[in-house]
Amino acid sequence: MPAADPGALTRHLRHLTETIGVRLAGSAGERAAGDYVAQGLAAAGAQVKQETFPVQCRDVRAQQLQVWHDGAWHDCGCSLFANAPGTEGAWVEAPLAFFDAATGYQRPDLAAELQGRVVLHLGCHIESRENYRRLIAARPAGVLMVDVRYPGASPLADAIFPAYAQAAGVVTALNVAYLDAWRWRERGATRARFRVVGGPRPAESANIVADLPGSEPDAGVLYLGGHHDTQADSVGADDNGSATAGLIELARVLAPRPRRRTIRLISFGAEEQLSVGSGAYVRRHREELARAGKFLFNFDSFGSLLGWNTLSGSGPRELDLLLPAYFARHGAYCRRERGVLPYADHFPFNAAGVPALTLMRLNCAAGRFFHHRPDDDLSRIDVKVMAASLNAVADLMSDLAAAETLPFPAEIPMDERAAVAFCWDDLFGGW
Ligand SMILES: [Zn+2]
User: What spacing in Å lies between the alpha carbon of 135 and ligand 1's midpoint?
Assistant: First the structure.
């Protein structure tokens, strides 16, 4: 039986990270990655189609930030959030207001403190539509977002959720390095100014959908997923070149195995703006998912050298009990993190009522220390680690595809349904 080949994984990863490079949603790089994965899946014998959807492409030609302390302006690194507007090259200058997201939204009157200011926002994910609405309604001059997961020395790249921007509007938002923010506070910084040339531009992204048809069309569909876009200025070897390369190998490994159920491999576009491609897929195929969708296994950043495999997402307990034996067979282990996680491409499938998990490989308590950074390159990856996980999942999926009846109910646990529905409405804007 064919198995995932570390040499092939390396070859795919080299092409994605070195020949193509950065693969921002809606850009030529993302398109090239989509074409590459489509070719690889077709070469494995899958029936491939592309499904396009609209996206805002982050198209930044220049970005500058300066902060005033100790009697002088200081240049600082910054990265415009996807979906946030630039300044058409003009400088915007305002007093600086320090604001921590964890407790700041308890303040009754945000405008009194933030209006007309550049807000240093400690915590770069506003995981509440109401808090986001209040921040924008306070009319800040701009927002400097600090990722608090890892106290790094360089700005990360990130995105404002499109559903939030659409519902409440958006201002210029720049990611800044945690250690820069710390220094500004320590030095008593009082003012900031920034300019950005470029910003969001309407563009198209695509999901690559590839079928390995089963012999019994009514037996349901099993899904394998990954995303082929990256964040700005990151070649994304782990996030998510690992899964893009992995899907091509999975198609090759699974194609010759007998199956009753169809296995559908989907390489999603535009994950980095909050699963825009996966959201587009479930909105377009809601009926198919309700009728035939059995299970999605999604991969996102699962190749870190050091680290531990972690499975997140909502699915039945019977499924959790099956998984460890498949990993152990290939000398690998994984830890199951329970609870609803809306920040990867499995989540829209959960919202559509389909059990769906994402495999990640964390390497520090805050996640992955090179997350969304330029140094997420090939040196971070172990293709043998990847191959072990891919072989475990290939065995699982071919057993499930061949089974007379599935060994678990294709549904979301009762106690997680309300939280799934809430996140789908709040973060994604619902159906
Ligand atoms: Zn990712």
Answer: 27
pLDDT of residue 89: 97
Structural domains in the chain? 6-57+203-428 (3.40.630.10), 58-201 (3.50.30.30)
pLDDT at 227: 98
Q: CA dist 264 to 85, 271, 295, Å? A: 37, 18, 10
- CA 268 / ligand 1 centre spacing (Å): 10
Ligand 1 centre distance from Cα of residue 218 (Å): 32
Give residues with Cβ within 8 angstroms of 338, minimum separation 6: none
Enter the pTM of the model. Answer: 0.97
Quick check: 345 and 227 in contact, CB under 8 A? yes
Per-residue model confidence (pLDDT) at position 17: 98
Q: 194 - beta bridge partners? A: 65, 92
For residue 211, the one-letter residue type is: D
Q: What is the model's pLDDT at position 394?
A: 98
CA–centroid distance, residue 88 to ligand 1 (Å)? 30
Is residue 81 within 8 Å of residue 160, measured between CB atoms?
Answer: yes
Cα-to-centroid distance, 227 and ligand 1 (Å): 7
| Ligand 1 center to 24 CA (angstroms) | 12
Residue segments in the chain with a per-residue pLDDT below the cut of 50 = none
CA of 228 relative to ligand 1 center, distance in Å: 8
Give the pLDDT confidence score for residue 127 in this predicted structure: 86
Q: In whole angstroms, give the CA distance from residue 303 to residue 386.
A: 5
